UniProtKB/TrEMBL annotation:
Record's keyword terms, sorted: FAD, Flavoprotein, Monooxygenase, NADP, Oxidoreductase
All copies of domain FAD/NAD(P)-binding, residue ranges: 10-234
Pfam families given in the database record: Pyr_redox_2
Protein name: NAD(P)/FAD-dependent oxidoreductase
UniProt keyword Hydrolase present: no
Domain of life: Bacteria
Gene3D superfamilies to which the protein is assigned, alphabetical: FAD/NAD(P)-binding domain
Length: 541
């Protein structure tokens, strides 16, 4: 770190998604000196990076937005599940409306950070992505607000680097890339893969989808919103922003807590039909909570889903691959992608499915992909819809050292550890929102950005008002939080699936549930108790 310090701050926020923007606005308004560094060249966080064809949010815009009235009074959504361009425009609107741009540095990637025990400050090294130049920032507090999708997961497939055509991850889609008439491979069938497949199928010459595990995709069912519809929604926003705090996932609907054992088969079926017709994630995060604790309930919902899905696919052999009779995992233990025409795409002559469990990918050649049956599939483009190193990848990507000189990768080698999902011992004055061991993946992003985020805001105000300069998670609180999460997780069905929720998608990582599975209200209550007890679980000095 030889470059000179260009900024001295109270707080450095890393990441320009919902959490980062919320902190910048709130802390600045409270008189802190704050800057936000964002690696992307423009506003939007994940909505800047994920501009693959068909990228679209899977929670309703009613709550996929800031609760700040200055924003929702003026902003109109064009539909209930807006697409990537509209979401990025929303972020631009927010930064303009709140005059945030003057404190944001885009194209600025934080690469390293060291803590100085004598001054209780971090020295952070960042790189300007346009010029390659590095510079230093000194900040009392650092908030790495990196979300769950900042570190792309690119599998190590032999030969990939030598492929003569184009290949890219869904979150690194080249701007304006034209797929027309191309022979395309899509590897991965999670939320990103499903959206890409249904969007490009009609325009490409040939599309081969490499599926490892079938998705349980649900109908999105968006609806257009005109000015009158936006006005109508606005009338309900204040109540919705209050209601979200009381729901499991921070959404405008809640899970059904009635035990399915008390529900007749007819009522069970009728409820599923009702939720199905509503669309979106309702059958999952608005469905029977039992599914998260009882695999048999998950399998009953799977059977319902399968019946609906089979009706869409003409070829029975293909249908069995996409929606097998034996559930590949209990319904709900993997994220349900939302779709419009994903299953219909497989009825097209130009779309093929390769089951990589049956015929694994052996290698990539200059011209295509060779599978274990010896077949070479020729392609012009390979799309890696292979997901993210979700919970800790953003943190481990930065060369941050603890007070004893360890990196995050070293500290997390036996699993992530945090107090309340908020901070890790050895990394003082570094606080997370929507990070590992917080509700994150189970919580609507903006809801947690604001409600978890407000804890951080209040905490920093408390430190300032009391002349304190340092906060650090205690190892005891981390152990307690870990044991609490493990007890909750082992009672659920989540460990039965190899999902990114379980960290099972990243080779070499400890298999553990890193999203808090106890629901948002319980989590917020635990955060509130900590704050009321003088930030219990954290050493303040
Ligand atoms: O990533 P994923 P994603 N060989 O990890 C497969 C959010 N999101 O980018 O299931 C072959 O879900 C992997 O297979 P398997 C949302 O929270 C939201 O799609 O591990 N295949 C899987 O099929 C979502 O959950 C929106 O067996 C390989 C796929 O790649 C999260 O982001 C849109 C492989 C990865 O799926 C991540 O979604 C998009 C390999 N080596 C994303 N490695 C919306 O708001 C991985 N796979 C709508």
């Amino acid at each position: 770190m030889e470059t000179s310090v260009v900024e001295e701050l109270d707080v450095l926020v890393i990441g320009g998604g919902f959490s980062g923007i919320y902190q910048l606005e709130r802390l600045r308004s409270l008189g802190f000196s704050v800057s936000l560094y964002e690696a992307g060249a423009d506003a939007g966080g994940v909505w800047h990076w994920n501009r693959y064809p068909g990228a679209r949010v899977d929670t309703e815009a009613t709550l996929y937005q800031f609760s700040d009235e200055r924003i929702w009074r003026e902003w109109n959504w064009s539909e209930i599940f807006p697409g990537q361009e509209e979401l990025q425009a929303y972020f631009r609107f927010v930064t303009d409306r709140l005059d945030l741009a003057r404190d944001i540095r885009y194209s600025t990637r934080v690469v390293a950070a060291r803590f100085d025990d004598r001054t209780d400050t971090w020295t952070v090294e960042s790189r300007d992505e346009r010029t390659g130049e590095t510079f230093r920032t000194r900040a009392r507090y650092v908030l790495p607000l990196l979300g769950t999708g900042s570190k792309a997961l690119v599998p190590e497939i032999p030969g990939l680097a030598d492929f003569a055509g184009d290949h890219f991850h869904t979150s690194r889609w080249p701007a304006g890339y034209d797929m027309t008439g191309k022979r395309v491979a899509v590897i991965g069938t999670g939320a990103s893969g499903v959206q890409v497949v249904q969007s490009i199928a009609p325009e490409v010459a040939q599309l081969t989808v490499f599926q490892r595990t079938p998705a349980t995709a649900l109908p999105m069912i968006s609806r257009k919103l005109d000015a009158a519809a936006n006005d109508e929604l606005r009338r309900g926003y204040p109540e919705l922003f209050r209601y979200r705090e009381t729901t499991f996932g921070g959404l405008e609907y809640d899970v059904i807590y009635t035990p399915t054992a008390d529900v007749s088969d007819e009522e069970f079926e009728a409820t599923l039909e009702e939720l199905w017709a509503k669309g979106g994630l309702q059958i999952w995060l608005g469905g029977y909570a039992d599914m998260f604790f009882n695999a048999e309930v998950g399998h009953r919902i799977y059977a319902f889903w399968r019946k609906k899905t089979l009706a869409r696919i003409k070829d029975p052999a293909l249908a069995e691959k996409l929606a097998p009779e034996t559930p590949p995992y209990p319904f709900g233990t993997k994220r349900c992608p939302l779709e419009y025409t994903y299953y219909d795409a497989f009825n097209r002559d130009n779309v093929e499915l390769v089951d990589v469990r049956e015929t694994p990918i052996e290698k990539v050649t200059r011209t295509g992909i060779v599978t274990a049956d010896g077949r070479e599939h020729e392609f012009d483009v390979i799309v890696l819809a292979t997901g993210f190193d979700s919970f800790t990848g953003g943190l481990t990507d930065i060369d941050v050292r603890s007070t004893s000189g360890e990196s995050f990768a070293e500290v997390f080698r036996d699993g992530a550890r945090t107090a309340l999902g908020r901070a890790t011992s050895g990394f003082p004055n570094m606080l997370y929102v929507y990070g590992p061991q917080s509700p994150s993946a189970f919580c609507n992003g903006p809801t947690c950005a604001e409600l978890e985020g407000e804890w951080v805001v209040n905490c920093l105000v408390h430190l300032r008002d009391n002349g304190l300069t340092r906060i650090e998670a205690t190892p005891e609180a981390e152990k307690e939080w870990h044991d609490h999460l493990e007890a909750l997780a082992s009672a659920t069905t989540f460990p039965l699936a190899n999902s990114w929720y379980m960290n099972a998608n990243v080779p070499g990582k400890k298999r553990e549930l890193l999203a808090y599975p106890g629901g948002l209200p319980t989590y917020l209550e635990k955060c509130r108790q900590s704050a009321e007890n003088g930030y219990a679980g954290f050493a303040l000095s």
